[in-house]
Design a protein that fits this description.
The complex is a heterodimer of chains A (about 180) and B (about 500).
Chain A: H1 4-7, E1 15-19, H2 23-31, E2 38-43, E3 49-50, H3 52-55, E4 64-69, H4 72-85, E5 90-94, H5 101-114, E6 117-121, E7 133-139, E8 149-156, E9 163-169, E10 174-181
Parallel strand pairs in A: 1-6, 1-7, 2-4, 2-5, 5-6
Antiparallel strand pairs in A: 7-8, 8-9, 9-10
Chain B: E1 5-9, H1 13-21, E2 28-34, E3 37-43, H2 45-49, H3 58-64, E4 69-72, H4 75-89, E5 96-99, E6 103-107, H5 118-131, E7 137-141, H6 144-153, E8 156-157, H7 163-167, H8 179-187, H9 193-198, H10 201-207, H11 210-220, E9 237-246, H12 249-269, E10 272-283, E11 288-299, H13 302-314, E12 322-334, H14 349-362, E13 367-372, E14 382-386, E15 405-412, E16 422-425, E17 428-441, E18 457-464, E19 469-474, E20 481-487
Parallel strand pairs in B: 2-4, 7-8
Antiparallel strand pairs in B: 1-6, 1-7, 2-3, 5-6, 9-12, 10-11, 10-12, 13-14, 15-20, 16-17, 17-18, 18-19, 19-20
Classes of the chains: A alpha/beta (about 180), B alpha+beta (about 500).
Chain lengths: ~180, ~500
């Protein structure tokens, strides 16, 4: 069985996917493990806003750049450019439509060329086959603890599928595994 | 070679400029506020014929001439218009300077024959300015002073070496004297320049200060007087014409590299950096193709800019071939040379290049960063500004727990000041397990914000049994419940 620390700072040079209600937390918990600028790419029309005050629990809001594309092709083109250049260590893209195999593969090649990590935030059930790993992230009720959530890995090209209950420690800025729940 | 100078005087420059754009029949005056009084600044001929004079109080003028139309003067626009005229005057000679706020000086030495002689040159100037509806009076002489005197008090051309005979009849005021010296000379009965020249120099110097003799010498050419031409703004454009058309992308890039090296050298000399570059490729069939490059930072490093052109050049349709390349820096910003130090972090070149690349695809203003703002209102506690025109700021204030996701408030059913037990939100049935709050936030009364019209808000963190953690608020002044954010 895999240990969480083996898999969690997600493999570099690859593009991963996350879905579910807690995908934002997952994305920024991952961003906290990366140094330097983070690029967040989304489509302009999406009403959901990232709140920098809430972001401060994970990373410094000054480290994040937001790029807004007109439609999905623009988002993908920008993401490919960012992944290939390697100027940002982590590229986060918010996708509204399913990704074709060609587009997913192009992102993988770009990430490999730039040795940077990409993470697509996708809608439930819209994963692409080219993704290295896919994570389902759902919040759990944990009493006064406001960060408890279940991260399940639902696709893994190099290992097994497992669930972890984790919470986020804002002070030390790291993920704490509460317990490992079996299949 | 004897110098020849043309002096042009536009006696009604300001009103002519205004009336060109908006012709008005009848008396018209531009007014200007001086010493707390509206005074006439510049008049048209009809107004002058009514007996009005510049400098007259506006109220008096209206009493004299009830149908006087007026408009406030715009001195900066007038100065800019004079600059435009100076640039236009370069068609006659390369050496053009400004003379006060309503005149031009042209050093036409050696260029008059191109226009068919001196008289023909002046005729040409008058004809063209008359067509532009500008009143002008001109003088041409050996010296700047004599040309000025002819333009303001006389007319025409002083022949080579015949300065004194041409301007001898003009009043002494034509020597550009101060008011005091002018009045003094008039009182002595020295009416015109010839009278002044006839007087012994020593007595004039003793009676007046050195100014009178200095001005006289300048007019007669015994003392030199310089004419300073306008500085020419640096031009950031280079071009290359090719003997044979090219069509391969690599060839175009090689040409661009040569142009870019020359352009960057020019940028470096002026300590500026390019912000927007435009590459125009002319094809043999006279068609034009353009590549525009908008940079995230002002730059003048050819090696760094060149790869950024690659994408645009790849998209060019070269047709039957390209035979001219032209590179223009259309927007230029100051970029002083900086000392390299250990203390200041080097700018992140790679990141800037990435912003440039993405910005040329999705628009440079669409790449943004968050900057802190001073407000308790959650949606106004930050501002979003384009990354290319801002620097990151790290002065974020620590606030209470805030959600990661914000959206426009969505109404949910609920009554009373405590969060509802059960709620339906986005087609989900949720059961409240724990609610923390309230945190009261009052609207900023000094701002009118449509979404805060419902008054103060009591914010609650609502943790549901199903796991979703919502940021809800209640508006006690207009009772209703809303969801505004989610702690993911």
């Amino acid at each position: 069985m895999d240990r969480f620390t083996d898999i969690f700072p997600l493999r570099r040079g690859r593009v991963h996917e996350a879905c579910g209600a807690s995908a934002y937390s997952f994305a920024f918990a991952l961003a906290a493990q990366h140094k330097g600028a983070i690029l967040w790419i989304k489509e302009k029309w999406q009403a959901d806003q990232l709140n920098p005050s809430g972001l401060a629990d994970f990373i410094s809001p000054s480290e994040i750049l937001v790029a807004q594309g007109k439609d999905q092709p623009e988002v993908l083109a920008s993401a490919e450019e960012a992944l290939r250049s390697g100027a940002v260590s982590l590229t986060l893209l918010e996708l509204s439509k399913p990704l074709s195999l060609i587009a997913g593969r192009r992102l993988q090649l770009a990430a490999e060329a730039g040795q940077s990590t990409g993470l697509c935030l996708i809608q439930d059930g819209m994963g692409s086959n080219a993704a290295e790993t896919r994570w389902q992230c759902e919040p759990l009720f944990g009493g006064a603890d406001s960060t408890l959530q279940r991260w399940s890995i639902i696709k893994n090209k190099t290992g097994t599928l497992t669930n972890w209950d984790v919470r986020w420690d804002a002070k030390t800025r790291r993920v704490i595994v509460v317990s490992k729940t079996g299949e | 070679m004897q110098k020849r100078v043309v002096s042009l005087w536009f006696p009604r420059l300001a009103s002519d400029r205004f009336l060109r754009a908006r012709p008005i029949d009848g008396p018209f005056a531009l007014t200007h506020r001086q010493n707390n009084t509206e005074r006439l600044y510049c008049l048209n001929t009809e107004a002058l014929a009514q007996g009005l004079t510049p400098g007259m109080g506006f109220a008096d003028a209206r009493a004299f001439c009830p149908d006087l139309q007026s408009h406030p003067a715009d001195l900066t626009a007038d100065a800019m218009f004079l600059q435009v005229l100076a640039r236009w005057a370069k068609r006659f000679c390369p050496w053009v300077g400004l003379d006060g706020h309503d005149g031009l000086l042209l050093d036409v030495t050696g260029s008059t024959h191109l226009f068919g002689g001196e008289i023909a040159l002046l005729g040409d100037i008058h004809m063209r300015l008359a067509k532009a509806q500008l009143t002008v009076s001109s003088g041409l002489a050996d010296t700047r002073g004599a040309a000025w005197a002819l333009a303001h008090f006389g007319k025409g051309v002083a022949e080579r070496g015949q300065t004194l005979s041409a301007i001898g009849d003009l009043p002494v005021a034509a020597l550009r004297l101060s008011e005091k010296a002018n009045v003094g000379l008039q009182r002595l009965g020295v009416r015109n320049i010839a009278d002044l020249v006839a007087l012994p120099r020593a007595t004039v110097t003793r009676r007046f200060d050195a100014e009178v003799i200095m001005r006289l010498d300048q007019v007669l050419g015994d003392l030199p007087e310089s004419l300073s031409p306008l500085p020419e703004a640096p031009r950031y454009q280079v071009r290359m014409s090719l003997p044979e058309p090219i069509g391969l992308a690599a060839d175009v890039m090689a040409g661009t590299e040569r142009l870019l090296t020359a352009l960057c050298q020019r940028l470096k000399e002026n300590e500026t950096g390019a912000r927007v570059l435009q590459l125009t490729l002319r094809r043999v069939d006279q068609g034009q193709q353009q590549v525009e490059l908008r940079l995230a930072r002002p730059m003048r490093d050819a090696a760094r800019i060149l790869p950024l052109f690659e994408r645009g050049v790849d998209e060019i349709d070269s047709g039957f071939g390209i035979d001219q390349l032209r590179l223009v820096a259309t927007q230029v910003e100051d970029l002083p040379i900086q000392q390299m130090t250990h203390s200041r972090a080097a700018p992140d070149d790679q990141l800037d290049d990435l912003i440039t690349r993405i910005g040329n695809r999705i628009g440079l203003e669409n790449i943004q960063r968050f900057l802190p703002a001073d407000s308790h209102i959650p949606e106004r506690s930050y501002v979003i500004s384009p990354a290319a025109w801002s620097t990151p700021s790290n002065t974020w204030m620590p606030v209470r727990q805030r959600p990661l996701k914000l959206f426009p408030p969505e109404v949910v059913a609920g009554q009373g000041p405590r969060p509802p037990r059960r709620l339906r939100w986005r087609r989900m049935s949720l059961t409240t397990a724990l609610a923390t709050g309230p945190e009261r936030i009052a609207p900023e009364w000094w701002m009118t914000d449509e979404s805060w019209h419902s008054g103060i808000r009591d914010y609650w963190r609502v943790y549901t049994q199903q796991g979703r953690r919502l940021w809800m608020f209640y508006t006690p002044q207009n009772p209703a419940w809303f969801v505004q954010g989610e702690f993911a």
